[in-house]
Amino acid sequence: MKERAKLNLLHNPRLVAVPILIAGVLAAVSVCASAQVSLTTVVDLAQRNSSAVKLAEADLQKAQAALAQTQDAYIPNFVLGSTIGYSHGFPTGQPSVGSATMQSLVFSYSQRQYSKAARAGIESANASLKDARQQVALEASSAYIELDTVNRELAAAQQQEAFTAELLRIEQQRAEAGVDSNLELLQTRLKTAQLKLQRLHLQTRADTLTKQLNTLTGLPLGTILTDHASIPEIPPVTADQAPLRLPGIDAAESAAQSKLFQAHGDDLAWRRPQLGFGAVYNYDSNELNSYSDYYRNFTPNNVSFGIQITIPFFDFALRAKAKVTASEALRAQVEAEQAQRQNDVQIATLTGSLRELDALAEVASLKQQIADAQLKTVLAQLESGNGGSGPGAPPQLTPKAEQLARIDERQKYQDALDAGLDLAKARLQLLRALGHMDDWLHELHTK
Predict the structure, then answer these.
(1) At 67, phi and psi to the nearest 5?
(2) CA distance 396 to 402
(3) Is 204 exposed, middle or buried, given 0-12, 13-18 or 19+ CB atoms closer than 10 A?
(4) How many beta carbons lie within 10 A of that of residue 437, not counting itself?
(5) How far apart are CA 332 and CA 255, in angstroms?
(6) Coil, strand or helix: which one is 81?
(7) Of 361, 152, 225, which is closest to residue 160 (Cα–Cα)?
(8) How far apart are CA 185 and CA 80, in angstroms?
């Protein structure tokens, strides 16, 4: 008898499949664990892969090159050349076989202003680069936190579908037994369809967010799994605290200052003289022309050098250019002031929204706690068998009540997650608007 039982166990396909199922689950868990990417890694990869950051880095290199160009104007250049050619009759040009020229700026009122403009341009480019990196960090963090939240909601929605399937089975049995009407069965089917639609909506959100993170980081599709433990607590910050200097506003103000220096330089260009240095060496030849027939003192080696003084008179083109750059400087200053005002409005808007979202998150959390307590009460009553038919006695609970309580608890759990997500995103945006984004980045790298 024991041998027959042992034989039945060995040949039972369900029992044989159990080790295979366990092995598959363990393998899936190990793959998922190896594919998890922390929030810090996502932010770092997004900053490296961002087109906005790369463009800001290119603008910084351009600004640095512009400063070098203004400073190098005082360094003499050195150019070699040759104009070999044949001429007949009276020579129309200098018979230069080889030439070397040197030229540089000695003194210019305008060039000093141009150098100041270039330095201000570097400050603006540095601030723009920092602003771009912070913006990318905000976008990547928001998308990562939302994807982590949606994944947890999706797991809860799948549990809801399982509870609803069990509820539908119970309701069909009650309808067949005449306990419940067909209307209640139809309502249960409607609830099943609604929860399926909700799960599909969450799946679409998760796929979209995953694609967005893959685009931000440059990682292949399907390689990002969120790690909830890697998300630090958002530093508490309120509008009552004094806002710090924003890199974007610093960039706008430095750009306006650069335009102002440029306009001042262009204005001095038609008002002030400038000094330049020049030197020329020519090695001349008389082999291919009759140069010596017309010039007695022909020598092959010729050198000239000196200081060039330029004093502008009635240069209306320079005056017009100065007016153009002055208008650009005025526009840049207005844009910087506008950026500051817009940020002030954003701070006020986010502060009001944050108070409301904080209250909504508290309400959603309390509803979830109440639903959880109600579920425990229902389970306890079902286990103890409370209820009766006597006067004043509570009715006996059924398995239908259990599934309804489970479904409601999972729904309140998702609502609490959604409210917490909205609150977290608003806090991150307020951090950014108040200039405390570096605090968040510090939290990421110390997590």
Answers:
(1) -65, -45
(2) 12
(3) exposed
(4) 24
(5) 7
(6) strand
(7) 152
(8) 95
> Which residue's structure tokens are 């059924």?
398
Per DSSP, the chain holds a count of helices (H) and strands (E) of 11, 6
What tokens does 1 get?
A: 């008898």
Q: Domain coordinates of the chain in residue numbers? A: 45-384+397-446
Q: Which residue has the tokens 């931000």?
A: 216
- Written as tens digits, the pLDDT of the chain (447 aa) is 444 443 343 344 333 344 334 434 443 444 343 468 999 999 999 999 999 999 999 999 999 999 999 999 899 989 988 877 666 666 666 777 788 999 999 998 999 999 999 999 999 999 999 999 999 999 999 999 999 999 999 999 999 999 999 999 988 888 888 877 889 889 989 999 999 999 999 999 999 999 999 999 999 888 889 999 999 998 887 777 777 889 999 999 999 999 999 999 999 988 888 899 999 998 887 777 777 777 777 788 889 888 989 888 778 888 898 899 999 999 999 999 999 999 999 999 999 999 999 999 999 999 999 999 999 999 888 887 655 555 555 666 788 889 999 999 999 999 999 999 999 999 999 999 999 998 899 888 887
The CATH fold assigned to 45-384+397-446 is Outer membrane efflux proteins (OEP) (1.20.1600)
Residue 309: strand, helix, or coil: strand
Fill in the amino acid letter for 411: Q
The Cβ of residue 307 has, within 10 Å, a number of other Cβ atoms equal to 10
Element housing 432 (H / E): helix 399-433
How is residue 235 written in tokens? Answer: 């530093």
